[in-house]
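SECTION: protein entry
WANTED: fold as tokens:
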Amino acid sequence: MAVDFLHSTQEGKNKPEEKKHGFFSMGKKKAVGVNLMTSEVLREASRAIVRRNIGLLVGSFVMALAIALAAYGVLFVWGAQEQKKVAVIRQELDSVDIEIAKMEKENANLIAFQNKLSVIKSLLDEHTTVLPFFNALEKNTLPEVFYSTLALADDGTVALAASTTSYTNVGRQLLAFQESKGFITSVQFSGIASSLDQQGDVIGVDFNVTLQIDPALFAVSPPQ
């Protein structure tokens, strides 16, 4: 009994000391191990979340940039096409303006031609002709007198721009008109002006002639 008690006591002294030492030692190791593992996991989870968020932000930015570039490209191409269309439309409008100008000019020429036809028709309707007038004018004009312009009015008035070589020829031409028969009813000279050479001699005389033609000269009997 005594031996057992001593043996137990000795074991008891040794064992509690080991248990005490082992308990605190294992307790500390377990507590430290759990805390370190939890902190590391949290840090890794935080890093993963941050990386994922950064990835999402970068991806979103890249996608937005790509969409913006695509939209800009579409707008650029569309704008270039629209500019080409506008240029084509402007060219077509210019062509239309040119055609309108041509048509207006042709229309003006047509109106002038119609007016001439109307005058000719009116002359034919009145059984008149200018051929007798030119024959009479040639017959009553001196060889030294020349005409540069001629205008015939509806009332039978004729305006002539004439020239000759001397004042004497001007007088002779006036007399020739006055003595004509069945040709004119009145004659008037105006605007008489001379041209001189270096010695002061007359080398030419210009003058205007106004004649009132006898209406009987234009009368033509209608065909039987």
Q: What stands out?
A: The helical segments are 2-125, 131-139, 167-179.
